[in-house]
Amino acid sequence: MKFLQTLSVARRTIFLSLGFMLVLSAVRLITNADDITSSGTISSTMRVATPILLAGLAGLWAERVGIVNIGIEGMMIIGTWFGGYGAWKWGSWAGIALAIIAGSLVGLLHALATVRFNVNHVVSGIAINILAAGATEYLSIIFFKGQKGGGESQSPTGKGGYGEFDMPFLTGGRVGSWRSPDILGWIERKHDLPLLPDLAGFARGLLSDVYVPTLLAIALVPLTGYILWRTRFGLRLRSSGESPQAGESLGVPINRLRYQAMAVSGGLAGFAGAYLSCVFTSTYRQGQTGGQGYIGLATTIFGNWNPFGVLRGAILFGFPTALKFRDEKNVPALLLVVATVLVVVAIISFTRQKQILAMGLLFGSALSATTYFLVDEVPQEFVAATPYIVTILVLVGAQQQLRPPAHAGAPYRAGENH
Amino acid sequence: MSENSESHSGPLAVELHGISKSFPGVIANYAIELMVRPGTIHAIVGENGAGKSTLMKTLYGMHQPDDGTITVNGHAVQFKTPTEAIAAGIGMVHQHFMLADNLTIIENIILGAEPTDNRGRINFGVARERIEVLMASLGATFDPGTNVSELGVGQRQRVEILKVLYRGAKILILDEPTAVLVPQEVEELFETLKRLVLDGSTVIFISHKLDEVLTYCDEITVMRQGTTVAHTTPAQVDRRTLAQLMVGSDLPDPSGRETEVGEDIRLQVLGLNVASEIPGAKLALQDININVHSGEIVGIAGVEGNGQFELCEAILGLRPKLSGTISVGGNELSGSDTRTRREMGLSYIAFDRHREGLLLDSPLWENTFLGREENATLTAGPFMKNRSIEADSRVIIERFGVLTPSEQVPAFALSGGNQQKLVVGREMASNPKILLAAHPTRGVDVGAQSAIWDELRIARDRGLAVLLISADLEELIGLSDRILVMFDGHITAELDPNTATPEMLGTYMTGGEIVTSL
Q1: Distance CA B410, CA B361 (A)
Q2: Taking CB atoms and an 8 Å cutoff, what residues of chain B touch A230?
Q3: What pLDDT is attached to residue B447?
């Protein structure tokens, strides 16, 4: 494990993903559940993970500047509504743009409350969540009710047009009007080989049938890393989350930075909402977010306030859900995956002298494996719960290494801390 | 003011003339005169609350003076923000470090003055080179790429100084820089400062530790009660004179006793060690031994911040101790909580009546009831007997002469002196066996002072054991039966009040030794 800690976060993510692929490959060969590493599952995972990733990045931008943003859920709700409205009137891209603007404005509202009026961050965030739910319902009654396909709780169908993407040559994308060969698809179908088809499926999943907004969201991960860790703006922003007094004493405009970062955070959350209402589906529906804003915030923590960590967390949450969407019969195989992963985590815990945790994990692993061999059908609810169970376990194991921004959520007034 | 008008070439580095600054209800500075010659280490000494930090914040642009002029290098200036002060070549190292733990040393230093290309991307290579040059001139050896969280106190201070130098500061203000350092670190710090002065910088050094000031500084300005009272050099004064200048005037006589000190030990502190709140800093209390007999007042002299607060909190069980024992009437207190300790007869007049002593928004009767919730005459089971509590409150108000229309007014409506009388009254009302009295007469008028002293004397004659912590040396000498001096977390001396003088106390309190010729 020492080796892993010497790597950069980006490399560690790649390394861990490879290990995970190995586990999946083995499980696939044992269970014949070919779909668990198919390109379809992977691209489905990416779609499910995108809004969570965006919400996680929204949480990261807010907490890095020192503001706890429980209001991500509300900002997402606003995003779904404005996304739905824009998609209905002008098309998906307009919906996304409108949602980003609306989300930013709500983000600024949160900043106004927490920075200017020093309202407790959690209270302001919860107020925003409640406000967003009520406001969207009210707006729906005004704008959607009586329209064709629309109503109090949903928008008329959007015009679509967000665009999909296939990589030429590797996944059979088109070059002009000519359809290029699908090389990865060919490898993927060699199901008897170990690992190779899994990797091909993984790559193909990332490169074929991809929504362009998903690509945008993924591009935001390294972009966030670059802005926050390589630029002047980013350093000042992080200083605001670590020690605003230090920044202030050096002439850093803390309050302005907080407004800026909250505009970005709100915009990301709005994007996440619009993704649900005009990319993933083509209508706004009430309650569409289903708490994904909170899950996003959990990935912020899970990802140790690092964009690559957030990506990791979003995929972890997205994968089981995607499997369920694809085919119910894949789900039992998931039990075996969980069992294997738990064994790995248990070994890690054991080497870190956390015997009790390790024993617990092993017990969970045994339970999971036994269930796999005894049960033919796994209840759906189990799938829905898996990511949360895994998260709790991982958070318990990772707690010691988490390093939240020191000043996130703490009250701060300029000029009062000397 | 002892005039030091030797002729020198070139303008003064800093000249403050007639500066005054008041906050609502407090005059923090008035009629300040300060002249700092370039290329010197200039000490500003004074007790806590003398207005040193306020003055330096004025100079650094953190707030604006109400009156007076500031001249830097011969130019009249008016700083609206620290940024403007930095631009004029002034840098400040705050007493409480302003560092972001999770950022690297480089990031902390360049923050706000980052070397970037035209797209805002930070050029870390350039930054590191510049910082390494500055580090070499300070004699600092750490990897600027490490996180600040991994540094010790002395190194953090070095980073703070680097921050200031990185911005090109030629005039450095250090606000009580040695308060958190161990002796070796203090020596290292002054070596660093000497190097800087040789390179042409000017250092303004705020302190109340006379030893350091006399050993290392070139000139000294003394402040007392918000204004500058003297300007001198180490060659012209000795420790005694300086202490006298710092401590100041006299007060009415608190002395007199007819009864004898009791035989039994009410409060015993043995080998007490308490850690500092700042990780990595020296111990807040080290090997403290105190006995207080019944009917005895033991005075603790010391400049504030030398461990008195930690001592009280440790005795009350508000602060964990590392080792040692605290016993009341022979019972060891380990494991008992503050409530139990109070029930055993411990009472406490807190250091800061606003923060610890009172609920400012609550009426007086609630305040006099605080901490006495177990008193059977004031409560019935889980219920408060409001009538009795109010009557009890009126008794306290009358006995201690608290000036108030009734017991129903909120505590903030009272003047400071009356608030203090109320606190003292409450703590005496539970008939304590041991009283920890921290600055019992601070900020009260002369009449209230003698009233409080009278009450303390009466209670003492009835057998109350008092640990009296005070900055008022006359009060200590007059009331105490024995005086212990605390310095730097140690008890450094035990004095007989019959032979002690304020000058002697001042010397011990500031870390000096007195060579007695018997």
Answers
A1: 5
A2: 121-122
A3: 62
In angstroms, the CA A295 to CA A57 distance is 12
Residue B6's pLDDT is: 44
What was the pLDDT predicted at A262?
97
Quick one: DSSP state of residue A231?
Answer: B
Q: Could you tell me how many CB contacts below 8 A there are between chain A and chain B?
A: 73
Sign of CA dihedral A224, A226, A231, A235: positive
10-residue mean pLDDT profile of chain A (418 residues): values are: 58 76 79 75 87 96 95 96 93 93 97 93 96 94 88 84 70 69 76 77 78 91 95 94 88 92 97 92 89 90 90 84 72 77 80 78 85 75 69 65 82 63
Report d(CA A216, CA A82) in Å as an integer. 19
Query: Over chain B (518 residues), what is each successive 10-residue block's mean pLDDT?
Result: 47 91 79 92 81 87 90 91 88 85 93 88 93 87 89 86 90 84 78 89 86 89 87 86 69 60 88 82 88 92 85 91 89 86 90 85 91 85 90 90 85 80 90 91 68 86 91 82 90 87 79 58
CA dihedral A60, A62, A68, A73 (to 10 degrees): -80
Q: CA of A227: which chain B residue's CA is closest?
A: B121
Count of Cβ atoms closer than 10 Å to residue A233 Cβ: 18
| B207 strand-pairing partners | B45
3-state secondary structure (DSSP) of residue B487:
strand
- Gyration radius from chain B CA atoms: 25
User: So what's the ipTM on this one?
Assistant: 0.81
Interface touch A243/B98, C-beta < 8 Å: yes
Q: Which residues of B touch A246 (CB under 8 A)?
A: 98-100, 108, 111
Fold match flag (B39-62+80-219 vs B277-285+295-322+335-509): yes
Residues 6+ apart with CB under 8 A from B389: B365, B366, B368, B369, B378
User: Do A250 and B122 make contact, defined as CB atoms within 8 angstroms?
Assistant: no
What is the predicted pLDDT for the residue at A224? 96
The alpha carbon of residue B102 is apart from the nearest alpha carbon of chain A, in Å, by 7
CA distances from B248 to B46, B48, B479 (A): 10, 13, 19
A405 vs B114: CB contact, 8 Å cut-off? no
Nearest-by-CA chain A residue for B62: A415
Asked if the C-beta of B111 comes within 8 angstroms of chain A's C-beta atoms, the answer is: yes
CA distance B354 to B109: 37
Q: Tell me what pLDDT residue A397 has.
A: 62
CB < 8 Å to B86, chain A: 250-251
Q: Do B112 and A406 touch (CB under 8 A)?
A: no
Q: Would the CB atoms of B57 and A418 count as touching at under 8 Å?
A: yes
Strand A174-175 versus strand B14-23 pairing type:
unpaired
The minimal CB distance from B111 to the residues A231, A236, A406 is found for A236
- Using the Cβ of A244 and the Cβ atoms of chain B, whether some distance falls under 8 Å is answered with no
pLDDT of residue B7: 43
Residue of A63, A245, A250, A252 to mutate when probing chain B, most B C-beta within 10 A: A250
DSSP conformation class of B387: H
Beta strands B434-438 and B465-469, pairing class = parallel
- As given in the structure block, the two tokens for residue B82 are 């620290």
* pTM confidence score: 0.70
Distance from the B114 Cα atom to the nearest Cα atom in chain A, whole angstroms: 6
Q: How far is A243 from chain B (nearest CA, A)?
A: 5
- Looking at CATH, the fold of the domain delimited by B277-285+295-322+335-509 is given as Rossmann fold (3.40.50)
pLDDT value for A417? 46
DSSP state of A407: T
Q: Check CB contact under 8 Å for B122 and A239.
A: no
Q: How much is the pLDDT for A399? A: 61
The DSSP line for B141-154 is ---TTSBGGG--HH
The class (CATH top level) of B39-62+80-219 is alpha beta
